[in-house]
Amino acid sequence: MANLVDSIAAESGGKIVLLVADGLGGLPHPETGLTELETARTPNLDALAGEAACGLHVPIAPGITPGSGPAHMALFGYDPVRYEIGRGVLEALGIGFDLRLGDVAIRVNFATVDKEGRITDRRAGRISTAKCEELTARLDQIQMPLVEVFVRPVREHRAVIVLRGAGLAGGLRDTDPQATGVPPLPVEITDGAQERTADLLNAFLGAAGELLKDEPEANAITMRGIAALEEIPSVGERFKIKAAALAGYPMYRGVAGLVGMDVLSMVETADEVEEGLRAAYRDYDFIFVHFKKTDSTGEDGSFDAKVAATEEFDEVAARVRGVNPDVLLVTGDHSTPSMMATHSWHSVPVLVRAANARVDEVATFGESACLRGSLGTVRAIDLMPLMLAHAGRLKKFGA
């Protein structure tokens, strides 16, 4: 399917905006039977739903819980299994690090462990970015034999480690057990070519533990997404579009840059989104706009906070609607139900607003309503061809 879409992509057509509320989908509250999205006051999203074709998408495949990286790769039209990009690579690219082919990048979480070495907080109380900068500068002094080591801050409790040298490999297992009350895991290999990299990273973990042991909160680190940088084709090459990204968090800026989008100003508020979108709209065929809070509040397990974040996203949607793009697709990359406090496999609401959309009877933007929409339930990877088709950017297939 991907090769088919690439082969019939047209060089002209309408302009597309992809508006993504991270972790948008949720689960019903036991007292009301409504999800966070269905509970929130969302007059602008509801108005868009009434003008659009609605449905649900499955981020990867039924029952598969996605990370944010593969979920966004699917939204951008890439097979997330074929192009499995490690979180470390995305974080490094997202902060503008000069990552080179063969480098191994690792996403780091500062964490809190007790006297027995068991994790009590996987995010170290979401320490400030200033504290993260202080701690990464300390860890950046660690040296490893025959490789260069770079440690850089990302945001709050997140950081990046990059190893540069010969004979390195990605694909090692994470050290974050994704749970509290247990110790971090060691770096473990999945094949023999990774042994040297595992030895280096386990030695780094030991050195980091010594440097952080007296910290009240961020007294340990965990590693995720241990990955080497590889080349992939750009959205411009594949879909004949000039694409840009407006996002605040480094990881999402990284995945957009990885597929060849121009990464523009950092945006988080509705005012910043509108200003950035209006400035970019004339020069780009495709603009990806990312909103984070719906995910982070879901991960924190706060139903009310996610409802509030969803209402904030509704104002962002209003500003994007005001720009009146030829094609507007609104969705999430995955579900993050606050009742689970983590990503989940559940399908995600989606709407497509365009002059040639098959508008249905859905009048509110929510999980149950979108289940009845004209789009049905599709795969996330199919949303890119749907956007291109609605924009008149796909030629007819065959005679």
Can you give me a brief rundown of this structure?
The chain has 399 residues and is an alpha/beta fold.
What does this structure look like?
- It is a single chain.
- A hairpin with a 5-residue loop joins strand 3 (104-113) and strand 4.
- The protein is globular.
- The chain has helices spanning 2-8, 36-39, 43-50, 68-75, 87-94, 129-139, 195-212, 235-239, 250-258, 270-281, 293-299, 303-323, 367-370, 383-390; strands spanning 16-21, 53-58, 104-113, 119-121, 148-155, 158-164, 220-228, 243-246, 262-263, 286-291, 327-331, 348-354, 376-379.
- The strands form two sheets. The chain has an eight-stranded mixed sheet with strand order 9-8-10-1-11-12-2-13, sandwiched between helices. Strands 3, 4, 5, 6 and 7 form a five-stranded antiparallel sheet that branches.
- The two termini are 18 Å apart.
- Helix 4 packs across helix 9 (250-258), helix 5 (87-94) crosses helix 9 and helix 11 (293-299) runs antiparallel to helix 12.
- It folds into two domains: 2-83 and 233-390, Alkaline Phosphatase, subunit A (3-Layer(aba) Sandwich), CATH 3.40.720.10; 90-228, no CATH class.
- By secondary structure, it is an alpha/beta fold.
Please write out the topology.
Blueprint: H1 2-8, E1 16-21, H2 36-39, H3 43-50, E2 53-58, H4 68-75, H5 87-94, E3 104-113, E4 119-121, H6 129-139, E5 148-155, E6 158-164, H7 195-212, E7 220-228, H8 235-239, E8 243-246, H9 250-258, E9 262-263, H10 270-281, E10 286-291, H11 293-299, H12 303-323, E11 327-331, E12 348-354, H13 367-370, E13 376-379, H14 383-390
Parallel strand pairs: 1-10, 1-11, 2-13, 8-9, 8-10
Antiparallel strand pairs: 2-12, 3-4, 3-6, 3-7, 5-6, 11-12
Helix pairs in contact: 3-12, 4-9, 5-9, 10-12, 11-12
